[in-house]
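hey so u asked for the seq, here:
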Amino acid sequence: MNEATMPVLIGCGQITDKRPPEEGSTVIELMVEVARSAAADAGPGQSLLEAIDTVTALGLTVDSPESGSAAAGMIRNVPHAVCTALNIDPPEKCYSYSGGNTPQMLVNYYAEKIADGNASAVLLVGAEALNTMIGRLKKGLDLNAWTDDSGGEPTMLGKPRPAASDHETSYGMQTPSVTYPMFENALRAKYGLSLEQHRQKLGDLYERFNAVAANNPLSWFPTKRSSEEISTVSESNRYVGFPYTKFLNSVIQVNMGAALILTSVAKARELGVEEDRMVYLHGCADANDIWNVSERVNYHSSPAVRTMGEKAFAMAGKTIADMDFFDIYSCFPSAVQIACDELGLEHDDTRGLTVTGGLPYFGGPGNNYVMHSIATMMDVLRNKRGKFGLLNANGWFVTKHSMGIYSTVPLQGEWQREDPADYQQAILEQEHPPFTETPHGNASIEAYTVVHGREGVKRALIIGLLEDGTRFIAETPDDQHTLQWMMSREMIGATGTVTSGPEKNLFVPRQHVHLH
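ran it, structure tokens below
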């Protein structure tokens, strides 16, 4: 091992702030606290922070164009604000674009920079305080402490790209709680389950996540819930997008922060970091699926996760059987099942699929959940020395993916990963159905959901196929009979007719005539 070019994680910090809105921290205060915690966790504390040459802050939810938030840009330069509060001035300060894959992607990116000698000590930090922010607004309290116009424009890391096409957005598909249930219904048909069998499967899957969250002191919702309670509609557990109830959805309105520090082994030793703090990245990979959901190969697989898994395991010289711990990205159950299927992992694997408790129960702090996931994995592996842990990260709609394989076992040889560009294009070139925005004729349903609001059922959304195999998006008639009927039977493969309209396409299921 060349210690000067061997990347290693040396510090992690996490916080969950459940104080009332009057007392809760701002996002910058949360980031500063976890940055200090990560430096203390590594051992050196302030002297480590002063040695940092790169600080990258995770994009805040309010700064994502998809959020449409009036709070966008309240903090003009997030990494500058963090560094000012920490009283440090590293030469490189960056701010990331949106994506749940980002924390792991950044670990992979900066590990490579350290291996190449282009970075020395890196702080990755992120937080969300949406619960406090919304609570303050509801109580008529000011957000003066939340605004910061200093530092000019931040240096942005990554490439901005809208979450969905304009056509998809016209159907609300830029919203995860609308799109992920469509994958879920496609999975149920693939698995050949009845509606009731599927409901039980979802409850059982997330009961296991919930049980971990219930025992995690950092969880936003540490309440223990049964499979039945999680998957059954009730007054406190309404449908959001059929078949997902509220308890199956990621929760973003939290106050949580997490930070990681990476260096080279040589730099860590120079700073006085002990061996028992060091966690190595044995394997990693990044890949995107075909960007627009309407152009995917299908709605129950991920060629990108499959490829990424192969690359990360090859780099680590390991297989799925060698892993002792997992944190499978769990914004919605379909993301978990697709990742497991592509990695060759059983949905009820006895090793467990999460170390945190998952986004619906541990908490889903915007783009920053995986920072918590990695920090938790570091702590688990430090306590179980010699074991291996795998986690995957997922951005948008099973769109952007990153993976890391970690252990306290030192790496042998040089740290070198395959350039993601070498395998990305083959994923994007996979054959997929042609798409039209103006469909007409006989058609069948490929994926669907029934969208609900607080007042009840609102609309049904389908992705369908014309008889010639061309794909389209449409809504169904929005009368209560149709919408209730679509939740009472398997609609994947159901036939009907579609017509294009000036604003939205309309798909009328053939069985619709039986309703009257």
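The longest strand covers residues 441-453. The chain has two domains: 3-163+251-428, 441-515.
lmk if thats what u needed
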